[in-house]
Amino acid sequence: MLKMTLMIMMLTPTAMLLKPKILYTTMTSYSFMIALISLTFLEPSSNTHLHLDSTSAPLLLLSYWLLPLMILASQYTMTKEPMQRQRTFLSMLSSLQLFISLTFMASNLTLMYIMFEATLIPTLIIITRWGQQTERLTAGTYFMLYTLTTSMPLLMSILYLNNATKTPSPFMQITQLTSPETELLLWVACLGAFLAKMPIYGLHLWLPKAHVEAPIAGSMVLAAILLKLGGYGIIRMMQIMPTMKTDLFLPFIVLSLWGATLANLTCLQQTDLKSLIAYSSISHMGLVIAAIMIQTQWSLSGAMALMIAHGFSSSALFCLANTTYERTKTRIMILTRGFHNILPMLTSWWLLTNLMNIATPPSINFTGELLIATSLFNWCPMTIILFGISMLITTTYSLHMFLSTQMGTPMLNSMTHPTHSREHLLMVLHIMPLMLVSLKPELII
């Protein structure tokens, strides 16, 4: 484990010192090598030094797997920039990966909080320095203010827990606290920070802004990993905090399911491609929040499966949106139509990724949503109405996105470059894990 952390740390000086000719080749090769070595973390016997278990290992592996994909996806845009900016960008990605991996490896609540907040700095720099429009500063401000405001109560509760237990709170049950009122306050304070990070509907306004303004690597890491830090944090809080009745979580479950449906309806009226994918992330994370709050074995397994599945499928959708943007210089869906006639192979990737996004078998998305639907229905049969409506609208906007961008007569008359092998490799490395994990789901569930 320490070796892996040192390898990630060394990526930053590597990015700064490599010769310009071999910068992207070497960085991508190194990060792929780290991703392949990290596959051993799924074996329980390998997790002896830092705190890795069946909850954190799959998410850690997802973050390692996406680092080389982010470098691959950014290559076309970044090679046009000055060399110093390219080096800074790659070192920012490496430092962000370091903070993310240390969050998942943390052995106590205090360390997890510090690393959870440290991810804010590289992400903020990536959004504000490499964003595509002038609104990127507003997006960065939203992102920072939402995270910091909701994190302050979490910090206060961690300090209180450390003081009550006379130790940095490890991930084990704290049985005795002073009163039920204190427990309730601690629960609400702890949940606030993680629910805003996921984000739950109502605290979600920073996400579409951040996604629309961020470069492709920023969008990928936001959708695939940073949203999952919220779910991971809630699962960890369930392990530490005194057990509460599900009645406390009832407002959150209702809000997350209703919010998922509202986010799906918002998707139907989006014209911006990246904004649509960002709102679809909010709806999927709503299902994950509801599943975690129920606290049954099936629902937690479903939440874990859907988090991993969403990490790959939303990242793939952002890569496809970026591929379209590089050729048309617009993200408005009606202006990007007709790609089926020009780049038919890209249309195949769009169809496959959209089918994954609406949870078609044999993807792991289907496994996750099936487990969540079963546990929700078992908890309260009425939830199947909201879940069914949500699934119906998800299918509608996914097909709408596919038809709007691929079918019809091309609106733009400019010359379109053919797709590169790099872009096809990027899609293969997103889609293959989704299909293969469903053959052996016990790796992540």
Key traits:
transmembrane helix, NAD, 18 helices, translocase, ND/Mrp_TM, 445 residues, NADH-ubiquinone oxidoreductase chain 4
Question: Would you tell me the overall average pLDDT?
Answer: 88
User: What summary fits the major beta sheet?
Assistant: none
| Count, helices | 18
Tally of strands: 0
Shape: globular
| End-to-end separation | 22 Å
Q: Specify Rg, calculated over alpha carbons.
A: 21 Å
GO biological process, one term: electron transport coupled proton transport
Subcellular location: Mitochondrion membrane
GO molecular function: NADH dehydrogenase (ubiquinone) activity; NADH dehydrogenase activity; ubiquinone binding
Membrane topology: Multi-pass membrane protein
Give an overview of the whole structure:
There is one protein chain. The chain has helices at 2-17, 23-37, 56-78, 83-105, 109-118, 120-130, 136-165, 180-197, 206-213, 216-240, 246-268, 273-294, 297-328, 339-342, 344-357, 364-379, 383-406, 421-437. The chain is mostly helical and 445 residues long. The protein has a domain at 247-444. Helix 1 (2-17) runs antiparallel to helix 2 (23-37), helix 12 runs antiparallel to helix 13 (297-328) and helix 12 (273-294) packs antiparallel against helix 17 (383-406). The longest helix has 32 residues, at 297-328. It starts with a helix and ends in an 8-residue tail after the last helix. The model has no long low-confidence stretch (mean pLDDT 88). It is a multi-pass membrane protein. Pfam families: Oxidored_q5_N, Proton_antipo_M. It catalyses: a ubiquinone + NADH + 5 H(+)(in) = a ubiquinol + NAD(+) + 4 H(+)(out). This is NADH-ubiquinone oxidoreductase chain 4.
